[in-house]
Amino acid sequence: MNRTPRLYALVEELRAAAPRLLTVAALAARFEVSTRTVQRDLQALMEAGVPVRAAPGRGGGWSIDPAMTLLPIRFTTDEASALVAALAAADASAPYAGAARTASQKIAASMTGPASVAAQELAARIVALPTRTAESVRTAVEQALTTGTVLRLSYVDAAGWESDRVVEPAGLLTAEGRWYLIAWCRTRRAGRGFRLDRIAAATPTGEQAPPHDLASLLLGSAAAGAVRPTSLASLTSPS
């Protein structure tokens, strides 16, 4: 058994035993590997965000919270390839890219058989040119959208002019491989789109922003016809 299926199987072994603890020695015997290999696997799961926990001392061992782990997922090879392509688009400049990386590790750990092979082979054939969005900007935008708070931006427009803006975030727009923060701009007193790679700096203010309808802010702009991606339909409630 190679590592990816073993990680998946390790999670399922801990889930099946929960809330009982399993020792490293027992897990090593179960998967016919060394205790050092099991320790490395458990550490990798922890780094990927899987809720495995160790209880030290006599009678201790490892456990997992079954309520916080993925149920077994059976992907077809086409579905696995689609996930690889989607995750590749979530490069370091995309919103929530850090969470996308940890999610991809969890998904990879759940894949077995032909789906796992197809995902690995396609992943080896995808490359991307890095973009210029600073991590600090991406993080500030993520937090402002999650918490509904006002942002102060230093923004460079297409002509190279830099200006300071105070904005009330409403949502995100993706178009032709670029990401835009859609917000009510207090400086311009109108809805505006701010390309993430043109935001030179983003500073959270901590001020709660009033809610804004994303579609309303896009009215009259080149993105007025933007629609919700069909791939997200299952994640959103009916409007």
Automatic annotation (TrEMBL):
Occurrences of domain Helix-turn-helix type (ranges): 6-59
Highest taxon, organism lineage: Bacteria
PANTHER family: PROTEIN PAFC (PTHR34580:SF1), PTHR34580
Annotated organism of origin: Kitasatospora cystarginea
Signal peptide start-end: none
Segments forming domain WYL: 139-203
InterPro entries (alphabetical): CBASS_pafABC_assoc_protein (IPR051534), HTH_11 (IPR013196), WH-like_DNA-bd_sf (IPR036388), WH_DNA-bd_sf (IPR036390), WYL_dom (IPR026881)
Protein name: YafY family protein
Pfam families, sorted: HTH_11, WYL
